[in-house]
Amino acid sequence: MNKLNKDETKKYIIEIFDFIERGGNLWKVDYKNI
Predict the structure, then answer these.
(1) How far is CA 22 from the centre of its chain?
(2) d(Cα 17, Cα 33) in Å, to the nearest integer?
(3) What global pTM score does this model have?
């Protein structure tokens, strides 16, 4: 259970950071365009 939890947590963290990177980049582009 511990190993599975760690793997799942890593997946969620990677997904969250990827989402933030994409969202942040899109937000920066929109902000500059405005």
Answers:
(1) 7
(2) 24
(3) 0.46
* Distance of alpha carbon 3 from alpha carbon 11, whole angstroms: 12
Q: Which structure tokens are listed for 19?
A: 């989402």
What's the pLDDT tens digit per position in 8-29?
889 988 888 888 787 766 666 6
The whole-angstrom separation of Cα 14 and Cα 3 is: 16
Write down the residue that tokens 């939890």 correspond to. Answer: 5
Report residue 10 as tokens: 């890593």
Separation CA 34–CA 28 (nearest Å): 10
